[in-house]
Design brief:
The protein is α/β, with parallel strands linked by helices. The chain has 3 domains: 5-73 and 105-184 and 285-363, FAD/NAD(P)-binding domain (3-Layer(bba) Sandwich); 186-283; 376-430, no CATH class. The chain is built from 14 helices and 19 strands. Helix 1 links the parallel strand 1 and strand 2 (28-32). The chain is globular and about 95 Å long. Bound molecules: flavin-adenine dinucleotide. Flavin-adenine dinucleotide is lined by residues 9-15, 32-35, 47-48, 51-52, 131-132, 163-165, 169, 191, 234, 302-304, 310, 313-317, 319. Flavin-adenine dinucleotide binds next to helix 1, strand 3, strand 9, helix 9 and helix 10.
Length: 447
Amino acid sequence: MKDTRYTVVGAGLAGSLMSILLARQGGQVRVVERRSDPRSGLEMAGKSINLAISHRGLHALEQVGLRQEIMDQATPMRGRMIHATGGALIFQPYGTRAGHAIYSVSRGALNRALIQAAGREPGVHLDFDCVCRDVDLDSATVTVQDRSVQEVRQLQADAIVGADGAFSAVRSRMQRTDRFDYQQSYLTHGYKELTIPAATGGGFAMEPHALHIWPRGRFMMIALPNQDGSFTCTLFWPFTGDGCFDALTTSVQVMEFFGRVFPDAVSLIPDLAEQYLGHSINSLVTVRSRPWNHGERVVLVGDACHAVVPFYGQGANASFEDCVLLDRAMRDHPGDRAGAFSAYSAERSPHTDALADLAIANFVEMRDATASRFFRGRKRLERVLHRLAPGLFIPLYSMVTFTSVPYGEAVRQARRQWRVVILLMALVCLPALMALIGILVFLVRGM
Ligand SMILES: Cc1cc2nc3c(=O)[nH]c(=O)nc-3n(C[C@H](O)[C@H](O)[C@H](O)COP(=O)(O)OP(=O)(O)OC[C@H]3O[C@@H](n4cnc5c(N)ncnc54)[C@H](O)[C@@H]3O)c2cc1C
């Protein structure tokens, strides 16, 4: 693969990481990104201000020597802090060990660190303000519009990596080829971000080491801490229908709604109505596609091939993991790019499909179940079972968040574990039930 020429489309999280890995394999990598260079001080606007990084993402960052730099800027979140409507707070740990945590990081800072690292690689050339307008799949040619000089150029390479996000221009070309499977679906809910500023005099206005959730049945709000003491809140709410984003159009309506539904948040956001009415509503899409390669010429990574909704906090983690797996597949198939791309696509895509299902299911769990005693009881039981048999029972959340067990395998293992637990419980309970029936029969006959 040495001296292979790559065009990477997109310098988001996956594209910038992949360009480093390709350069370290000896590739000549040209990255085209439609946004401006964040190293010049411009903030890379994105889908969310901050995001949660966990084991898979940190493992990938470690491969390129960035783990510690990112951890130094991260705020650990050790569990969920549930905010009941009445104001009560309940903490639910995420993990089974004291050290288990997920990490809130600034998306802009993370992306900037990756782009800086890519820029330090001798084999990487970065072109910002360059939009991919079209792709010729068979000749690996990308047509780009360079907005800085108002020029359209053709970039020819040996292979293209499509890392241009959920609405990928590279994938949209692949969608027009024979037997390419593609599925896109939107949630009926959208999201809006709001900021809780740092407390007066500095510091956090709420517990910093938790992901805060206000579960309200059909909808919810969450908040992740930022290093400057602020929190970024995300309100997930239906676009239309009874009780939805459309319903709040005036400051009075906003204050009445938040005062009734999220009363403890109102005092923490002094300019609540202004923020609410000024901030955009964004949509939540799931994308599934297959195959992720076009022979040896094109391969996809990240949201370009599998966008998932954010409720398992895994989209970026999975995108980073793709890069590590593609890098490994290429090392395992020296001199056979088509074989490497096909193996990566075939082995990885069932697992990101499983993640897409998990992410949608977790939305219901977060907005509804987290508030219930049953949910808390189940989580406690999972922790007890894990402590009793750490090698045999690992909660699904732990496998997804704190290990690299492939997503689909984690789902299957979790199902197997619960089947065994239910069987054991039945075996333990059966003699007791028989004895109870025996006593009842004896008593009835004796009467
Ligand atoms: C609200 C929200 C919260 C989230 N929270 C989390 C979380 O807590 N944890 C987590 O792991 N994941 C989270 N995610 C998911 C995560 O954001 C994505 O999975 C991740 O950003 C995917 O990275 P990517 O590089 O594949 O795509 P992107 O980050 O979308 O990057 C794509 C890049 O390609 C560029 N581009 C696009 N089109 C073109 C073009 N035609 N030409 C040139 N460049 C182009 C874009 O400008 C961008 O820089 C969240 C997502 C959302 C929406």
